[in-house]
Design a protein that fits this description.
Layout lengths: L13 H4 L2 H41 L4 H19 L18 H16 L1
Helix pairs in contact: 2-3, 2-4, 3-4
Length: about 120
């Protein structure tokens, strides 16, 4: 009975049966898709930062101090939502607008500009 068993027949060269180039295209397609998704993400983030910087520059041009302070605080609240990370404002941001000095106002504007750069 054992004499009737035959050896398993294998192809002479296994490299020709499954070439490596045939298996590379799915990885290249996946890398291309990931690259496009990353490029769109970077483009959107850049576009958002540019519009936010323009909005901040418009707020800085406002002459009325109380209105400007209100706009700065609204901008800061929106910045936290847009950036999807918590934003801790300086302590003077929670004071009444009449008690805020021009240097503190400038500090808040610089702070928001720095946060936009992150």
């Amino acid at each position: 009975m054992l004499t009737q068993l035959r050896d398993i027949h294998l192809p002479a060269d296994l490299g020709t049966a499954a070439p490596a180039a045939m298996a590379m295209w799915p990885f290249l397609v996946l890398a291309g898709i990931a690259g496009v998704i990353l490029a769109v993400h970077v483009w959107r983030a850049r576009r958002w930062r540019q519009s936010a910087r323009a909005e901040l520059a418009g707020i800085v041009q406002v002459e009325d101090r109380a209105a400007q302070w209100s706009m700065l605080l609204t901008f800061a609240a929106g910045l936290s939502k847009r950036a999807r990370r918590p934003l801790t404002l300086p302590p003077f941001a929670y004071r009444h607008p009449d008690t805020v000095s021009d240097t503190e106002r400038a500090e808040l504007i610089a702070f928001l500009g720095t946060e936009l750069g992150r």
